[in-house]
Amino acid sequence: MSEFEKLLPNICDSIAKTAAHVISYADDDNKEELLDALRSNVQNYTENSQKFQNINALISNLSSGRSDTNVEEILQNFNDGVSNFQPDSSTNEFLKQYDTRVADLKKNLAGEKSTDNDDEDADMQMTEEDGANLICPISKVRMTEPMKNNICGHVYDKASIIALLRGNAATRCPIVGCSNKKHLIMDDLTSDIVRQMCM
């Protein structure tokens, strides 16, 4: 795995955090334009990652071939493989995560705007519900850096989940009754921007 591929989750996470700031602070006139530009960046990064994977696969296949093959023929096969490759980012998980996060942020922001016009009781109830959602199910204290499990959707505080995994690497989702049977790994967790915006 190349350095670029290792950094791709962090890059996409940073772009999603930037989208959260765009949704919160940008003017309505150019908000969608900025979000589309950010989505285009995620798409470009994922397509470049696919191109890198294709090039690595071509190099691996061509280097494992016969040693008596002509060098020019190998170069021609490599160039053909690179030029004929068409990346498809429509099914990419990072692009789907970006779209989901932006939709959640827009929904969250729309919910905040609608409660601004409601009475104080509804505002108080909303605040209490948000507070309950900001409590880490592991440590039972308010989250400082919420991390969402991409498999089951549950949210934990980053420090709590790191401590839990340090104690037992074979830990599953600590939420009682969770149908996720896969062991927790940090690669399956992403920062929950919606909850961070509520803090």
TrEMBL record:
It is found in: Nucleus. GO terms for cellular component: nucleus; Smc5-Smc6 complex. Residues 120-199 form the SP-RING-type domain. CDD domains: SPL-RING_NSE2. GO terms for molecular function: SUMO ligase activity; zinc ion binding. It holds the Pfam family zf-Nse. Residues 28-55 form a coiled coil. One of its GO terms (biological process) is double-strand break repair via homologous recombination. Pathway: Protein modification; protein sumoylation. Keywords: Coiled coil, Metal-binding, Nucleus, Transferase, Ubl conjugation pathway, Zinc, Zinc-finger. InterPro entries: Nse2(Mms21), Znf_MIZ. This is E3 SUMO-protein ligase NSE2.
